[in-house]
Protein: Undecaprenyl-phosphate 4-deoxy-4-formamido-L-arabinose transferase
Organism: Cupriavidus pampae
Amino acid sequence: MTDMAETFRPVVLVPVFDHERAIGAMVDAILKHPFPCLLVDDGSSATCAQVLRDLAARADGRVTLLRLPHNQGKGGAVMAGFDAAWQAGYTHALQIDADGQHDAGCIPAFLEMARRSPAAIICGVPQYDASVPRARLIGRYLTHVWVWVHTLSFAIRDSMCGLRVYPLAAVVPVTRATHIGRRMEFDTEVLVHLVWRGVPVLNLPTPVTYPSDGVSHFHMWRDNVRISWMHTRLFFGMLRRLPTLLGRRLA
């Protein structure tokens, strides 16, 4: 693997779980841009699995399909994608959700920012339309406040947006060596760990629409319990790192 300053080789990473109605349009939108695509099938149903195989087969080698034998959660799928992308020689992974809530037209802007700042993680900051549920907005704001506490920083403007670019040289060691939640808590938890390690964060506004296929895998009680436990872990992790974090603030 050559130094990131000398090469920039990104891949668009899409975790997929039973989004057979939306994924075709998402892949078509991704392939309008000159970047390869890695689909991670997170143990989807037979119907969705066949749709993904067909998409990969007709994409002239531009789409790679990684099939996980059973559902591991969004975080598990993304982490499996990181490993596969890193082993394939990619330097960066642009994560985008499969359900169509993110505008694939933003991909060039995100990757251009990553090319200019290859050591940074590029985080989407959602610009919502009227489709966003109000309860989601409230829950997201509470998580943002906790993230500012965990990091003693306002660097992360939104820790839950599923459109972002990861420098693989920074994130793969974290996901391999650290316990990171494998489901809906993943997006937030991995960002906090990256900030703790000193990875720079750049924020880029992006439009978000709720979701095009009507499929949401967020389970209100189960995932809120996981998120609460994540915040507990991160708070005590922050306390252990308090001298370092305060030192950065003073510097």
About this structure: The chain has one domain: 10-250.
